[in-house]
Target: Antitoxin
Amino acid sequence: MAATVKVQHAKTHLSALLARVEAGEEIVIARGDRQVARLVPVNPRAPRPLGFVSYRLPDTFFEPLDDNELAAWER
Model:
């Protein structure tokens, strides 16, 4: 069952109400005795896969640099 709060309470405690909504609770905001709005959690987005580009480093990437290349990087 959803918790009901008055508009003034919602205005002054919005951060706390949002924390409750993030935890899965539903909050109904009422003006007087009339319900006017609902705060509900948004469906979380599916996690995006890491490494969406297929690429593999060549084995030579980890080989030591020769002296000329190393000197160019140290300038």
Summary: The first strand starts at residue 3 and ends at 6.
